[in-house]
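The material for today's practical consists of a large collection of protein records. Getting from the letters to the C-alpha cells is the skill we practise here. To make this concrete, we reproduce a full record directly below:
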Amino acid sequence: MRKKISAPGKIEPATPDDLDHILDIERESSPNPWKRSFFEDELTGRLSTILVFKGLKEEGIKGFIIFRKIDDIVEINNIAVCIPERRKGVAASLLSFLKTFAIKESVIEIFLEVRSQNTGAVKLYEKFGFRFSGIRKGYYSNPKDDALMFKIDIN
C-alpha cells in the first residue's frame, strides 16, 4: 500500500494579512530567520510568489513556500512548515502544487538550496525526484553551514 504524501487543505496566494503567521513559522523553522521586510519584498515582488497551506477548517496557516519564476526556471527561495504539522504532508503538498504549476508554465527546471544539516528536508526533496547538483561551501551563517544544491527537470 502506498503511503499518502499530501495533507488535506488548500493552497492559496499569501496576502499581507498572512505575514504574521508566516513569520511565526519562519522563526520556529530557521536558525537564521528572514526579516519581515524580506517577506514584504517577496509578497510585492513582480517575480516572486508566496503560497500558503491552510487546513480545511479555519485552522490557520500550516506552511508556506516562496519561489521565483524567471523565464523557464523556478527557484525555491524558502519553504517551511509549523512544527506540529511536520511530517504530515504539508511540505509535500506545497511541492506537488509547485510541480503542477511548473508543468503548466512550461518550466524546464526547479532548483533550490538547503542546509547540509537539514536531513529531513534533503530526504523530502530526494523523494520528490530532486537530484543533488552541487555544494556551496560556507553559504549559510548563524550557524555556518554548507548549502546543498538540488534540481529537478520538468518534462
In short: The beta strands are 10-13, 48-54, 61-70, 73-81, 109-115, 131-140, 145-153. The first strand starts at residue 10 and ends at 13.
